[in-house]
UniProtKB/TrEMBL annotation:
It comes from the Bacteria. The lineage of its organism: Bacteria, Bacillati, Actinomycetota, Actinomycetes, Pseudonocardiales. Pfam families: KH_NucS_shadow. NCBIfam families: SCO5389_fam. This is Uncharacterized protein.
Length: 129
């Protein structure tokens, strides 16, 4: 899924004047499922909880595509991390975690992004996700 970029934003980018706020608005409007999923993970953060997360599989391939696009693109993912003030982590086709930047060097984050963490988060019903 491509981003739906309004002409004024495209013009700003062509002039070298694209702001993070403009780009984040394009992402929010173009990838609403991904935006909602990441917003949910961020909102799930709480004191005493190691990270916020969203674990519900996308309802369709279109939504899955939005999430993959948002998290696979360095530009999109970086803009979302800056906007929400988090570091995003991703497993399978749907498990998104939002970590406080200060926790990225911690054991919980390292475990989440480790090969072991990925393997332990597998299941037969998620094989094709």
């Amino acid at each position: 899924m491509s981003l739906d970029v309004p002409t004024p934003v495209l013009d700003a980018a062509a002039r070298g004047e694209l702001t993070d706020a403009q780009f984040v608005a394009v992402v929010r409007d173009s990838l609403p499922y991904a935006w909602e999923t990441i917003s949910t993970a961020v909102a799930d953060q709480a004191p005493g909880k190691p990270f916020g997360e969203h674990e519900v599989p996308p309802p369709s391939e279109q939504e899955r595509g939005q999430l993959l696009r948002a998290l696979a693109s360095n530009a999109i993912r970086g803009a979302l991390e800056r906007h929400f003030g988090v570091v995003l982590a991703f497993q399978n086709c749907h498990r998104v975690a939002a970590f406080a930047p200060a926790d990225v060097d911690g054991a919980t984050y390292r475990e989440f992004i480790s090969p072991r963490g990925q393997v332990l988060n597998q299941s037969p019903e998620l094989r094709d996700c």
